[in-house]
Design a protein that fits this description.
heterodimer; A: mainly alpha; 19 helices; about 0% strand; globular; B: mainly alpha; Formate dehydrogenase/DMSO reductase fold; 17 helices; about 70% helix
C-alpha cells in the first residue's frame, strides 16, 4: 500500500492575485457577455437571451458547487493523496455569491421557461395531468424552494470553506489579506493545534450533511429549473444525472485549475507529484465513465419501453438539429477521455489531463444546453447557437475565472502542518482491544 | 511532523496495532486450517440441515409441480426472483471491497477482503440456483445458453433476462478468477506448512507451483491489478442489468429510469451488511480480533450508511416522481406499497433500509459490534423485503382489478429460501476450513518489517488475557 509522504516544510501559498491587466481583460469579457445578452433582449430575441442565461447559469454554478463538493468528498474519504489538491477545488466557492445573484436574475425569465404549465395554471389550457401537478408547479412555491435550496447549499459551502481554512490563516500571509484573515480567526482563537482538531470535529458532521443536501437540493434545482419545462415528462434519473454531472464538472475543473497553480498561478509544482496527477486522472477517467453509465441507464429504459410521452423528450434531442450535438457531447465527455486516459501515462502529464478535462467541460456545457433548449425552443427555427450564446458564455466564463482566482488568492492552497497533523483516523484500532 | 508520522508507522500498523510480527500472521492464518472446535461443527451442522430442507422443498416442487410455489396470474414472479435478486446483491460488496477499494488504495481492506470475496462468489453461486428453480423444469436450463441446435431456436437477445444470464455468468467468472488469483500465494504458504498428506496434495495442485520468486510476485501484482480493474465495472453492470429485468417493462412501479444505480446502491448496502453479519461471529469464533479492528467496523459502518442514504434518496425520488408524474397508475402503485395489503412489507423496507442504518451516524454505534451486528441483520431482512416489495405487490395489483390477487408465501417457497441460506453458509464454512481466509501477504505489507535492531513485541498471549477461542481445539505445536 503506497503511503503519501508529506514534505517536512510546507509553505504558506495562495494563488497569485489578479494583475490589473488580467482584471481589465476579464472585466471587458464580462461586459461583452452582458452586452450580448442585453443586445439580444433589445433586438427582440428575448427567448434566446433567457435560455442562454439559464444554460450558462446551470453550467457555471454546477462547476463551482461541484468543485466544493469534490473537496467535501476528498475530506470525507480522508484522501491523503489529495492533500495539495483539496484547497484548489475549494476555491470554487468564489463564484457562488455571483451565482446566487445571477440565479435571481435568471428566475425573471420564468415566462419563457415554464410556459407550458404556467398556461395550465392560469386556466388557459386544460390538461388533466398537469393540473394534478399544480401544487408543485406554481411560481411562488418554485421560487421559494429553489432560492432557499440555493441559499442553503451556497451557505454550507461558505461554512465548509471557512471552517477548513480557519486553522491555517492565523496571522499568516501578506499584508493584503491580513484584515480578512484577522476577521476569520478573530473570535475565540484557540491556537493552531486546537483549532485544527476542532475543525476536524465540526467537519466530521458538516461535510457529510453538506454532501447529502447537495444530492437532494441540487437535484431538486435541476429538476425544477429544467425537467419541469416539459410538464408531462418525468424521469426518476433526471435529478441524479443533474448532480452527478455537476460533480464530474467539479473534478474536471479542479484538474485544470491545478495545472494553472502548478506553474505561474501559485508555484505548487514541488507539491504536486506525478502520483497526484495519476490519482486525479483516475478520478477524471472514472467519473467520465460514470457519467456515461448514468445517462445510458436513463436512455435504455426509455428507449426500450417506447412510451410516447416519455420518448418525446429523447426524440426531440436525437433528431436534427440537436442530434450532432448529442453525439458530440458523448464523444467529449465519455469517448475521448475514456480512451485518452485509459493508459497510465496520459493521466500523469498535467497538460494532457487538463486537455481531456477541458473536453469534458465543453461537453458538459453542451449537455446543459441540450437538456434546456430543445424543451423550449421551437424546432423549426433551427439551432439557437450563435455569436450571442458565445458572448454570454464568455461573459459568464470570465466572471467565473475572475471570481475563482480571486478566491484562490485568499485561500491557502496548501494545508498547514497543524491541519495535516489533525487528520488522524477518528477511531483508533486499539480501542476495541481495550474493551474486549 | 512528517517524520513523526513516519516513525510512528514503524512502531505499529495503524490498522492492526495488535499484530506484532509476521510470525503471528502466519500462525493465525494457519490456525484457520487446523481442526475445528465445537462451535464450528455446530454451525456446519445447522447449515447442512438448512440446505437439506431446501433440497427437500425443491424435490417436492419438482415432483408435484409449480403450483406449490403459489404462482398464479398475474403474480408470475414471486419469492424465487426476490431471492435471486437478493443474493446477486449480496455478491456486490465483496468485489467492491476487494477491487474498488484496492484501486482507491483504501488501506483498511487487507484483512477483510478475502472473506468478502468468498462471500461474493458463494452468493452469486447461490443466486444462480434461483432462475433454475424458478423454471419449474430445471433440466431445460441449458436452453438459456445460445448454441447452434437442430431446432434452430435461439434465446431472445433483446430480452434483459438473457442479458442477466450473461451478466451473472461474467460476474461469477471474473470474481472467481479474482478470488482464486489473490489466494495463490497464501495457498502456497499453506502447502508448505501443512503436514496432512491429502491437504498437501490439494494445495500443491491449487498453488500452481508458486515459489514466491521476485518475478512471480511482479507478475502476480500486475495481474491482480488488471483483474481488479476488470472487476470494477462489473460491480456496476451486473445489478444494473438485473434492475433492467424490471425497469424496461412498462409495469407501473417497475418502469423507472433510476433503477440501475438504485439497485447497485441497494446491492452494496445488502452486501456490506452481510459482510458485517459474517465478520462479527467469525471474529469471535476464530479469535482473530486483532485483524478485524474498530477501524474496519468504523469504515464498514460508513459505507453502509452511505449506501443506505443513497437507497433512501432513491426511495424518496421514486415516491416523489410517482406523485409528481400525475399518472394515476403510478400514484396508486406507490400508495399501495405503503398503505395497501402489503403495507407490512413496505414499511419493513423503509424502516430497515433507511431509518435503522441512520444509527450509524454515531461512532459508538459503528464500533459497538453487538449493535452493529443487529443493525446488519435488520438491513439484510430489509433488503430482501425491498425486492419483495418491488416484485410481488406490484404484480398483485397490475392492470385489471378483477385479476388482483394476493400472493401468500408457501411452505415450499419458505423451505427453498431457508435452503439457500443453508447452501450459502455451507460453502462459506467449508471455505474457512480449507482455504486461507486471511491474505497474509497483504497484511504483512502494512506491518512494520522485521528489522535486526527492532525489538519484537512480547507474544500476544502476554499482551492481553488470551483464551483459546471456541472455534478451535487446542493444537499441539
Amino acid at each position: 500500500m503506497q503511503k503519501t509522504h508529506f514534505p517536512d516544510n510546507i509553505p504558506f501559498r495562495t494563488g497569485r492575485p489578479l494583475s490589473a491587466t488580467a482584471l481589465a481583460v476579464l472585466g471587458l469579457l464580462v461586459l461583452i457577455g452582458a452586452g450580448a445578452a442585453i443586445f439580444a433582449g433589445v433586438a427582440g430575441e428575448t427567448e434566446r437571451m433567457w435560455q442562454a442565461l439559464l444554460v450558462n447559469w446551470l453550467f457555471w454554478s454546477s462547476i463551482a458547487i461541484g468543485m466544493v463538493i469534490f473537496a467535501v468528498a476528498l475530506h470525507i474519504t480522508e484522501a491523503d493523496w489529495a492533500w495539495a489538491v483539496r484547497r484548489t477545488a475549494m476555491a470554487g466557492v468564489g463564484f457562488l455569491p455571483f451565482a446566487f445573484i445571477l440565479f435571481i436574475v435568471v428566475l425573471f425569465g420564468y415566462e419563457h421557461f415554464f410556459q407550458e404549465w404556467l398556461a395550465v395554471g392560469r386556466g388557459e389550457v386544460e390538461d388533466a395531468i398537469v393540473e394534478r401537478k399544480l401544487p408543485w408547479l406554481n411560481m411562488p412555491f418554485l421560487v421559494t424552494r429553489n432560492v432557499l435550496a440555493v441559499l442553503i447549499l451556497f451557505g454550507l459551502a461558505f461554512a465548509f470553506v471557512y471552517r477548513d481554512i480557519r486553522p491555517d490563516v492565523y496571522g499568516a500571509g501578506h499584508d493584503r489579506h491580513r484584515g480578512l484573515y484577522d476577521r476569520i480567526t478573530g473570535r475565540n482563537w484557540r491556537g493552531a493545534k486546537e483549532e485544527a482538531l476542532h475543525t476536524r470535529r465540526v467537519l466530521a458532521w458538516l461535510a457529510p450533511v453538506f454532501g447529502l443536501l447537495f444530492a437532494v437540493l441540487w437535484g431538486m434545482v435541476g429538476m425544477d429549473m429544467v425537467m419541469t419545462m416539459e410538464a408531462h415528462w418525468f424521469s426518476t434519473m433526471f435529478p441524479v444525472a443533474f448532480f452527478v454531472t455537476s460533480f464530474v464538472a467539479g473534478i474536471a475543473a479542479t484538474a485544470i485549475a491545478l495545472t494553472w497553480f502548478r506553474g505561474a498561478g501559485a508555484g505548487l509544482r514541488p507539491f504536486l507529484t506525478r502520483d497526484t496527477y495519476h490519482d486525479l486522472g483516475k478520478l477524471v477517467f472514472a467519473f467520465a465513465a460514470f457519467w456515461m453509465y448514468i445517462n445510458w441507464s436513463q436512455y435504455i429504459v426509455i428507449w426500450y419501453a417506447m412510451w410516447p410521452h416519455e420518448q418525446a423528450w429523447m426524440i426531440d434531442r436525437l433528431n436534427p438539429p440537436y442530434d450532432t450535438l448529442v453525439l458530440l457531447t458523448v464523444i467529449l465527455i465519455f469517448v475521448l477521455p475514456f480512451f485518452g486516459l485509459l493508459a497510465r501515462e496520459p493521466k500523469k502529464i498535467p497538460a494532457l489531463l487538463s486537455m481531456f478535462a477541458g473536453f469534458i467541460l465543453v461537453g458538459i456545457w453542451l449537455e446543459r444546453f441540450l437538456i434546456v433548449v430543445p424543451s423550449i425552443w421551437p424546432v423549426e427555427l433551427g439551432l439557437p447557437l450563435g455569436l450571442m450564446e458565445l458572448g454570454v458564455t464568455v461573459g459568464f466564463g470570465a466572471l467565473f475565472v475572475g471570481s475563482y482566482l480571486w478566491a484562490a488568492s485568499m485561500i491557502p492552497l496548501l494545508p498547514s502542518p497543524a491541519t495535516l497533523e489533525a487528520r488522524k483516523p477518528v477511531v483508533e484500532a486499539s480501542e476495541v482491544m481495550a474493551r474486549d | 511532523m512528517a517524520t513523526e508520522t513516519h516513525e510512528a508507522s514503524q512502531e505499529r500498523s495503524i490498522f492492526h496495532p495488535e499484530i506484532g510480527s509476521y510470525e503471528e500472521v502466519n500462525r493465525d492464518s494457519a490456525r484457520f486450517l487446523t481442526k475445528p472446535g465445537p462451535g464450528y461443527v455446530a454451525l456446519l451442522g445447522l447449515a447442512l440441515v438448512m440446505a437439506g430442507i431446501g433440497l427437500f422443498a425443491w424435490m417436492w416442487q419438482i415432483a408435484f409441480g409449480m403450483g406449490l410455489s403459489g404462482k398464479q396470474n398475474p403474480v408470475g414472479w414471486t419469492v424465487y426472483i426476490t431471492t435471486f435478486v437478493f443474493w446477486v446483491g449480496i455478491g456486490h460488496a465483496g468485489t467492491l471491497i476487494s477491487a474498488i477499494l484496492l484501486l482507491f488504495r483504501a488501506g483498511w481492506r487487507q484483512s477483510i477482503y478475502r472473506f468478502a470475496e468468498a462471500m461474493t462468489v458463494f452468493a452469486v453461486m447461490t443466486a444462480g440456483l434461483f432462475p433454475i428453480i424458478h423454471l419449474g423444469r430445471p433440466w431445460t436450463f441449458y436452453w438459456l445458453i445460445p448454441y447452434p441446435n437442430q431446432r434452430e431456436l435461439w434465446p431472445n437477445f433483446r430480452s434483459p433476462l438473457l442479458w442477466d444470464v450473461f451478466a451473472v455468468t461474467t460476474y461469477l467468472t471474473v470474481s472467481s478468477l479474482f478470488f482464486y488469483a489473490g489466494m495463490i500465494p497464501d495457498i502456497a504458504a499453506a502447502r508448505d506448512s501443512t503436514k496432512v498428506p491429502w491437504r498437501k496434495k490439494f494445495y500443491t495442485i491449487l498453488a500452481l507451483g508458486w515459489r514466491g520468486t521476485h518475478h512471480e510476485w511482479k507478475h502476480w501484482t500486475r495481474a491482480y491489478l488488471f483483474l481488479a480493474a476488470l472487476a470494477t465495472p462489473l460491480v456496476l453492470s451486473v445489478h444494473s442489468v438485473v434492475s433492467w429485468d424490471f425497469a424496461i417493462s412498462i409495469v407501473p412501479g417497475w418502469h423507472a429510469t433510476i433503477f440501475a444505480p438504485y439497485f447497485v446502491a441497494g446491492a452494496i448496502l445488502s452486501g456490506v451488511a452481510m459482510v458485517v453479519t459474517l465478520m462479527v461471529p467469525i471474529r469471535k469464533i476464530f479469535g482473530i480480533r486483532a485483524y478485524f479492528t474498530d477501524l474496519h467496523f468504523d469504515r464498514l459502518g460508513k459505507l453502509l450508511l452511505l449506501t443506505s442514504l443513497i437507497v433512501g434518496l432513491a426511495y424518496g425520488i421514486e415516491y416523489f416522481i410517482a406523485w409528481y408524474s400525475g399518472e394515476l397508475m403510478e400514484r396508486d402503485v406507490f400508495w399501495d406499497r405503503l398503505f395497501g395489503d402489503y403495507w407490512w412489507a413496505g414499511w419493513t423496507m423503509v424502516i430497515a433500509n433507511v431509518l435503522v442504518p441512520q444509527l450509524l451516524w454515531s461512532k459508538r454505534m459503528r464500533t459497538n459490534l453487538n449493535a452493529f451486528f443487529v443493525i446488519s441483520i435488520i438491513v439484510n431482512i430489509g433488503m430482501w423485503y425491498e425486492r419483495f416489495v418491488i416484485i410481488v405487490p406490484t404484480l398483485a395489483r397490475s392492470y385489471q382489478p378483477w385479476k388482483f390477487v394476493n400472493h401468500q408465501i408457501t411452505p415450499v417457497e419458505a423451505g427453498i429460501i431457508i435452503g439457500s441460506f443453508g447452501f450459502f453458509f455451507l460453502l462459506f464454512l467449508v471455505f474457512l476450513r480449507y482455504l486461507p481466509g486471511i491474505s497474509t501477504a497483504e497484511i504483512k505489507e502494512v506491518l512494520p518489517p522485521p528489522m535486526r535492531n527492532r525489538k519484537l513485541p512480547p507474544p500476544r498471549e502476554e499482551r492481553y488475557a488470551y483464551e483459546t477461542p471456541a472455534g478451535y481445539r487446542e493444537v499441539a505445536e
